[in-house]
Fold this sequence. Notes:
By secondary structure, this protein is mainly alpha-helical. The strands form 2 sheets. The protein has a 3-stranded antiparallel sheet with strand order 4-3-5, with helices on one face. A two-stranded antiparallel ribbon has the order 1-2. It has helices at residues 9-12, 17-23, 28-49, 76-91, 104-111, 116-125, 131-138, 142-156, 166-173, 177-206, 214-219, 223-240, 245-267, 299-312, 336-346, 353-366, 389-408, 412-418, 425-439, 446-456, 461-480, 484-508; strands at residues 93-95, 101-103, 279-284, 290-296, 317-322. The radius of gyration is 25 Å and the shape is globular. A hairpin with a 5-residue loop joins strand 1 and strand 2. It starts with 8 loop residues before the first helix and ends with a helix.
Amino acid sequence: MSHPGKVxxxxxxxxxxxHLAERAPAFKxxxxxxxxxxxxxxxxxxxAADRAPRLLPRVDTIGDLVGKNRKTPVSAADNKAVxxxxxxxxxxxxxxxxxxxxxxxxxxxKYGNLPAADKAQLLLRAGRxxxxxxxxxxxxxxxxxxxxxxxxxxxxxxxxxxxxxxxELQTMFGATPNQVALYREARAAIDRSxxxxxxxxxxxxxxxxxxxxxxMVLDAPKLSDxxxxxxxxxxxxxxxxxxxxxxxxxxxxxxxxxxxxxxDLQDAGYAPLSRFGRYTLDVVDQEGNRQYFGMYExxxxxxxxxxxxxxxxxxAVITQGTMSQQSFKLFAGITPETLxxxxxxxxxxxxxxxxxxxxxxxLKLTKNNHSALKRLIxxxxxxxxxxxxxxxxxxxxxxxxxQGAAGLNAGTMDRAINDIPKEQxxxxxxxxxxxxxxxxxxxxxxxVRGMLFAQYLGGSLASAxxxxxxxxxxxxxxxxxxxxxxxxxxxxxxxxNDMRRSWMDGLQL
Length: 509
């Protein structure tokens, strides 16, 4: 029994996507794009992770686990010592006009009530405002001029963000030379991830027309070099094609803005504030101020935290719940490209608080909890974010790698799916399933997740290796900080035995 346009039961169940791609020419471009996306994720993630070899150790050989040259874990004490300057630098500290580290609250007291004219001079002195821009603002009505100056001053001078010098780490945080080196690793990995994500975002903005520049942009030594390559190309094309000059110069400005945003994040010592787990705990005091919001991976931890918070904040309203992993699908019909356009339209450099809230709420719903874009949401510094530096950095660079890979391959898979003949509707549905799995991986039940992996990516040796080595690349380094590589290896071996016994018990039932 067969019918034109039908996909066989074999291909829907046991067969792999690679096997189907070899037999169905219309599906092959979809599969190849998916594989290219996976390769890009791996490239971008490893590129950043290599900047932090001790925080994010890679187990390449057995010698990394045993022997005199084995890799040693970051201790819990060192992790705590690095977390304090890393997260406080992005959340609590800024610098005054002389470059001295000052708490943001103190900066606000010192500068917040100055008149607009004085703020403008401080911005010029600190190099945070171009003199030509200030002259242009002075030609505007007084109320508009003051609004622009105050907004720029708040965003540039009263905003948290500090990258610490070695001397500051030692004197202000008591860091040892080893801990200083670990802080540098964390900063290098975060900054490189921001750098490469920005390059991918530039290529997404330019589209297929400039896809040929991809490798040169990614291989450029610095972000500024990649920017110069793109702007030079765009400006030369604008001169050569007067009829397209306006559009090309708009693209030029878009690329410049993306590079500027990345540099601002790096210069401000941006570090992601991440929370992990599904079980939530929200603490609001009697004045209505949110004192704590935490996420926990087990109900036991969440319940213990509730008891602790009740003691710490008497009279506070403490609410427990679970975090939705699916609500972002309400906007599943809106592509990341559309989201980027929305961001550019709604959130400008001088966006007011109301505008920012609109985008924040939109972004909260439209992106997965672990996506890179979600970390653009303006942070309030509420306690409860993870202090595990290795885990936070690893999650950040992997999430950015996914976002970057999506940018590098934007639209390619959608066009390949659209090119499948309408008579092959089931094949197109299968292609849509692959697209969904690539772009929106969820933490489904492990059995279901395993079947989806086997169905969609099981034909990829690269994906197989990545999945098989995940316990050694992620779980083992994290466990090792609490007792060393040998103890962590023993715990993992016992866990594998427990899993094997559970399988055998299931078979006996």
